[in-house]
């Protein structure tokens, strides 16, 4: 027992994961960190009982002290780090996106297939959220009959100034892309993006978007992507089936009666909303790795497929119309 | 068809009822008004197409132009007006309380019994609220098994400066007294009042109160009476039965997501909360009177019984301890 | 005071309206009925205190005994009856649809314009539902900032065997068409229909549909139309604005805790869900007619515009793709 | 890092805690177990990677292999085990009750005071439930003004045949006793038990009970204790303050629309409802022990005070009337 983890990229999300992994389940601890900002790596390492700052992610990956790797660095660096982990035969948990292009994702899939065993897990945390799991349980359990439609909303209170229209798809709706594939256990076959009236809160940014996804069996999912909604952070999803529907309930633990209203508080941001899902995600990942099993969570294929769908949606956003998703056959390794 | 109504007392609630009755169902109209303030009576009459201001309630009651009477005057005047209506053989709708003492209520009951027919309806409007009716329907329909407990709250945003501790029982909790009798179809046999920590918002007023009522079959109901609760006006009730519970749902028709919360608005006051119940109450009363039937709503006996329970609760408030309710046998007329 | 109404078509909805109008507000009563089934007309008339059965709708319309007309006959007969009312100068309340083709609706608009005054009201009852009014109040009052998106669902428990795919638009989604025009105070400029996976509960019927409407200012509204949803009748609508959202709350008046769940009952059908809205609709119509005012509710133009949008949606359903709505300029009479 | 725990009593709750502690946070693991049923102890130990079954709790406590002790044995054995832990100077987590009589609890307090440092934590898990923490946060943060009243319900779907009326207080309401002390940061000064109509589901058992607790500052809390409520397991609490109220929200993560209702599932039992609270409770306990700090959770004083209040409530249950709680001064160690 005991899992010695190396973390590449110790910005905000990296530090959050470190908090969960150091002194975490099954004796997991963080033994090495690396960051493009060496000073930051040193500072973070200094606060941990057992961690050393290493000069590069590459060195971290091959270090004998490191049993498994968490990649929380800048998106464009994901591909080389994950490929290096596969080469080193080490389990790797890579924050989403797996890589920033579908070609890069495909190279990871190919490398893993060539290596002949699954080592990669992607940080699609929705799958670990208790409410989303209850949603899937209801759908899978037949509580609403065969699913026919899904209505989703992904709302951020605000985004930084550098946020672009494309990021609404590639960084934000990517969560719904994975969620829908997971929820319905099948691939998305087409995407179409609509641009409603623009919110004045986002300046020149085209916000919100309305995205329509088609699943392989015909289920249609409409997704509102709003990134300046001001009132808080909220994820909504209702699945309509043949005999009923199931939706995420409000997540507020208490109801306040005050100032003329009965109210539940809305989370301020994704950290607040999904804190528990990250706990579960990393605990289950550690369990898997310690047990020597392949990752049970979203793998390289899921990261790749999500990227291909995201690219289709981006093409629709740029050119209009329905764009079919062209996904090659799923390799044997991922069946 | 057509019911010509006289209204005694044209203050706020009187004017509200006039609005419902003039040009109302079955051709009801207000043909006469009277008020201690003759000028106010004249002003109100002048705004109605068919109404005259009469110099006194007594004259209104005996006027040939008046088919039925609504009494919305000051509480202490209810007894003589209602007795005069009984003497005149005219249907009368009297706002709660039927009279301000149990002795006065008893005289009304006795007069009605002597007259040999039911003419009096008391304005306990809870019985006409769609949500309270749904509550009773669930209880009566066996949805929760035999009822065992009830948990109620009666909350006012604020009360005027002249409001007293006794009014929390006699004017406010009186609604729950009638509601519990109606909901469970039996009498209240004891009352006990507790005085929690005092709200600083009511100055010297002992507010809130917690009142415990025992029903004949042993059901216990705890009632929070809070009259300075600031956040709005709210009536809550949950009935716990052997196999489940039923409670009033939040009444807000829409849910707002804004400023960090998912919220439903709470009514500002009883007028807003119970507007529809008054509509139904008066429409059903008009229907009954036009049809020549005795009142289907709460009658003189209900007004009397509520007053007896209220007096028991007041005695507990003043002297402490559990006070048994001493209610004589129900006359044949009210069975 | 007193409004003497004639009712053409005394099937289910006709009889419901009669119940509201006979002995209704301001002394309204039903004085004449007509029906293609003369026997049914006679039977209904016999149950009313003041009504005669007339041999035809045409005769009813010109009868001196009739002040105003309610048309609740079969859709294809609406046009001639409404035109006859306009010719006779009598106020007419016509159940939706105003007429079954946009050309027929246009002829009604033209006739009214030629007559120079508004006599026609169309039975789009959503506008009278308290919850929908609270929704509009929140939107108009700025509670959510400028509206950007709307998410709607129109769900029927089941439909009769003769129900067709086109009826999902022309008979069912027509309510959302009017609702969206009213809610946002502007025209719909395009429609697009998507066909998700088909429910096995409707046999060969293409059910559900997903319809996308574009408002003049760019607001996009997605509407799920499901007519075999089995679990009950439910209308959902959420409007997303720049700073928040507002949605219809669950309509259940009580919450039941039983058998492992906390539940609110869903209405069985539209009669249960919208009973109160019909009360308000007809009461306000009577008030308007008695006051000699033009109808305050949806008029001939609204009936026409809704039909034009419905036709565009039908075209999209048949041919695919986005179909622009071609609506002529609104005549002066309707501004 | 790493905490080696011994567990005394490996029945259901013991095994649940073992699951959380073995391979748990900060490298915690279970190294020893003991049970009155030696065979059961052996079976449980055999399934754990690092645990030995020891012949007695006493030997486990003094074993050098054991850093800290969890007591989940039968209630009457708690006192000697906890006293032995204090004597051995080892941190001990004892499931509630701390001991089965207030005298026994007092002996533990006295022993801890004599030892001069806090070693004991009691398993009052409500304090670790996220919803209860949000409730306390709202109260403490002033969201509802000064608290005045609390309305609670503790409902079990069913209880075993050996369950007695006294257990409704001593085993069930004991959770509310601790919760109220913690929520309001003060002692309970009186208790009064009322016996409503008896549920037929519990046979001869007097169920439900209604208990009224008075806090030192006058806050009154009414607690429904129902142990055969059939529909599920549910904990309810609303605190009424001067300007508003706060209550536990429904805990269901999703809402199902099916079969005529919109419903959230209710937990089947306390294990389902409070799973997360046990996770947090034990994780925080491990953190505290590893850090060498005194327990941050409920300590021996809390276990003792709860028992004194429970005894007062039992006296009221047996003899009727309000029973004042006689609690000696709080020793310096617990201030």
Automatic annotation (TrEMBL), chains A, B, C, D:
It catalyses: myo-inositol + NAD(+) = scyllo-inosose + NADH + H(+). Gene3D superfamilies: Dihydrodipicolinate Reductase, domain 2, NAD(P)-binding Rossmann-like Domain. InterPro entries: Gfo-Idh-MocA_inositol_DH, Gfo/Idh/MocA-like_OxRdtase_C, Gfo/Idh/MocA-like_OxRdtase_N, MI/DCI_dehydrogenase, NAD(P)-bd_dom_sf. Residues 138-324 form the Gfo/Idh/MocA-like oxidoreductase C-terminal domain. Residues 4-124 form the Gfo/Idh/MocA-like oxidoreductase N-terminal domain. One of its GO terms (molecular function) is inositol 2-dehydrogenase (NAD+) activity. Its EC number is 1.1.1.18. Keywords: NAD, Oxidoreductase. Coiled coil: none annotated. GO terms for biological process: inositol catabolic process. The keyword Zinc does not apply. Belongs to the Gfo/Idh/MocA family. This is Inositol 2-dehydrogenase. It comes from Geodermatophilus poikilotrophus. The gene is iolG.
